[in-house]
Amino acid sequence: MAKNKFSERKLILFTLGIIILSGIVRLISYSVGVWMFYLSFSPFIFYRLIYYLRNRGKLSKSDKYRRYTMMVIMLTIVLKVLGFQDGEFILLFVLGIDYLIIVQNPRKVNG
């Protein structure tokens, strides 16, 4: 039986869907919407961490660039939790950069 691979484009679109939902929740309850915004990145981070643990030695050049984007996302979320910065735009910008890396290398990254 073949393994079903989850498309990374779909993962990013799913993350964006949760971000949009958190924006709607933010209109109703600001504090819940803010936390939901930051938690919306958790499926993306967990999937990438599992991918890197399974494919330690088989990473392409684009995977290495995507590792940097994931580190920036994680660092920004940690700085928000610690109270040092409020970086919603940075997170959206880095997620967009990650999407552009996927679009530029579709065969190598869709694992």
TrEMBL record:
Superkingdom as given in the UniProt entry: Bacteria
Sorted UniProt keywords: Membrane, Transmembrane, Transmembrane helix
Stretches that traverse the bilayer: 12-29, 35-53, 65-83
Name of protein: Uncharacterized protein
